């Protein structure tokens, strides 16, 4: 049995033990009403599994939102707030967010602000949500194409990771979560990174352990720096350029849809290249990082005319201060460096490096 993880203000429980704990929690709290927030995919593929693990007399109102990052906005929040109000939610209600990172981010924000805050529980159903969005209490929504510009830091009462939910995911969604797991190895633990050098040899039990280990890494970082004053910034490795690429592709319908993890995978290659230029990261390790990432993620075409508008998105990155764009780079695998500045010329060279990779 995977052991629970104690976080700042809540616990993460796994699989069957998780359902046991959520049943105990709901019994003890005796909420006035229970709401379950899903998107159309998790409603179809995950809700019945969740309900089958609840008591026979368990009842809940299900609120469904449209799936996808494009719907992670204040308009969707307004709709959910209105539904809660129309259905008689009060301050003693609870919202169970059953879904990927969009559902848990948006649902946590909606619950934290409805009537100045009601209880919420997260049940992440995607690999990305389990290893990334599940830890740290970041909730919020996008502002137009700008990622996570509006939100609050607030933790759920309890969080359940049911790894069987991963069987409902298409391969590209599994890869999207894998990007964050690779990141955790690169910024924190070279031994964890080494586990991914031959993923083909791993079985489902190994995946369970890797998921838990990834959550532990993120939680260790967050526990030491809950308000992102220093160390927690390292979790943004690959995200400065990755978020800019994600935002740019989101705004351009003629571009292929990029999942979060796919954009972060590109960002990690670009920022590892910058690490060679600015932090003496070893060239042979850049080659290894690039090779590993491109063995899991298809190479995305980024044209010359795309690069300048992508760079223009960097000014919205939340790590910036006093007008400076700050990167998280690597001195070595497991040894990150925060608040590094890179000029546009070096950023352009990083794109040229990515473009030149053979697949």
TrEMBL record:
<protein>
    <recommendedName>
        <fullName>3-dehydroquinate synthase</fullName>
        <ecNumber>4.2.3.4</ecNumber>
    </recommendedName>
</protein>
<dbReference type="InterPro" id="IPR030960">
    <property type="entry name" value="DHQS/DOIS_N"/>
</dbReference>
<dbReference type="GO" id="GO:0003856">
    <property type="term" value="F:3-dehydroquinate synthase activity"/>
</dbReference>
<keyword id="KW-0547">Nucleotide-binding</keyword>
<dbReference type="InterPro" id="IPR016037">
    <property type="entry name" value="DHQ_synth_AroB"/>
</dbReference>
<dbReference type="InterPro" id="IPR050071">
    <property type="entry name" value="Dehydroquinate_synthase"/>
</dbReference>
<dbReference type="InterPro" id="IPR030963">
    <property type="entry name" value="DHQ_synth_fam"/>
</dbReference>
<comment type="function">
    <text>Catalyzes the conversion of 3-deoxy-D-arabino-heptulosonate 7-phosphate (DAHP) to dehydroquinate (DHQ).</text>
</comment>
<dbReference type="GO" id="GO:0009423">
    <property type="term" value="P:chorismate biosynthetic process"/>
</dbReference>
<keyword id="KW-0456">Lyase</keyword>
<dbReference type="GO" id="GO:0046872">
    <property type="term" value="F:metal ion binding"/>
</dbReference>
<dbReference type="Pfam" id="PF24621">
    <property type="entry name" value="DHQS_C"/>
</dbReference>
<dbReference type="GO" id="GO:0000166">
    <property type="term" value="F:nucleotide binding"/>
</dbReference>
<dbReference type="GO" id="GO:0005737">
    <property type="term" value="C:cytoplasm"/>
</dbReference>
<dbReference type="InterPro" id="IPR056179">
    <property type="entry name" value="DHQS_C"/>
</dbReference>
<keyword id="KW-0520">NAD</keyword>
<keyword id="KW-0479">Metal-binding</keyword>
<feature type="domain" description="3-dehydroquinate synthase N-terminal">
    <location>
        <begin position="63"/>
        <end position="175"/>
    </location>
</feature>
<feature type="domain" description="3-dehydroquinate synthase C-terminal">
    <location>
        <begin position="177"/>
        <end position="320"/>
    </location>
</feature>
<keyword id="KW-0862">Zinc</keyword>
<dbReference type="Pfam" id="PF01761">
    <property type="entry name" value="DHQ_synthase"/>
</dbReference>
<keyword id="KW-0170">Cobalt</keyword>
<dbReference type="GO" id="GO:0009073">
    <property type="term" value="P:aromatic amino acid family biosynthetic process"/>
</dbReference>
């Amino acid at each position: 049995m995977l052991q629970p993880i104690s976080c700042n203000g809540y616990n993460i429980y796994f699989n069957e033990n998780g359902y046991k704990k959520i049943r105990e929690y709901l019994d003890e709290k005796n909420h006035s009403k229970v709401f379950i927030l899903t998107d159309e995919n998790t409603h179809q593929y995950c809700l019945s599994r969740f309900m089958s693990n609840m008591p026979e007399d368990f009842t809940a109102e299900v609120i469904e939102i449209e799936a996808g990052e494009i719907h992670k906005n204040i308009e969707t929040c307004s709709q959910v707030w209105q539904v809660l109000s129309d259905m008689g939610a009060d301050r003693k209600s609870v919202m169970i967010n059953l879904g990927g990172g969009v559902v848990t981010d948006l649902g946590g924000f909606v619950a934290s602000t409805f009537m100045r805050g009601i209880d919420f529980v997260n049940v992440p159903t995607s690999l990305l949500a389990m290893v990334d969005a599940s830890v740290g209490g970041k909730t919020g929504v996008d502002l137009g194409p700008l990622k996570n510009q509006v939100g609050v830091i607030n933790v759920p009462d309890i969080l359940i990771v049911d790894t069987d939910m991963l069987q409902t995911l298409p391969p590209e969604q599994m890869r999207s979560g894998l990007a964050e797991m690779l990141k955790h190895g690169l910024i924190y633990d070279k031994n964890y990174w080494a586990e991914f050098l031959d993923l083909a040899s791993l079985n489902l039990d190994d995946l369970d352990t890797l998921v838990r280990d990834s959550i532990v890494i993120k939680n260790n970082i967050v526990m030491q720096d809950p308000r992102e004053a220093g160390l927690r910034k390292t979790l943004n490795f690959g995200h400065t350029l990755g978020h800019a690429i994600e935002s740019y592709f989101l705004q351009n319908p003629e571009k292929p849809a990029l999942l979060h993890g796919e954009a972060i995978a590109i960002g990690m290659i670009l920022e590892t290249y910058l690490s060679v230029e600015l932090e003496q990261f070893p060239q042979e390790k850049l080659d290894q990082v690039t090779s590993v990432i491109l063995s899991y993620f298809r190479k995305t075409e980024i044209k010359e005319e795309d690069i300048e508008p992508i760079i223009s998105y960097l000014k919205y990155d939340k790590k910036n201060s006093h007008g400076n764009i700050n990167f998280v780079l690597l001195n070595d695998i497991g040894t990150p460096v925060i608040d590094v500045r890179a000029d546009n010329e070096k950023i352009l060279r990083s794109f040229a490096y990515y473009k030149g990779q053979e697949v």
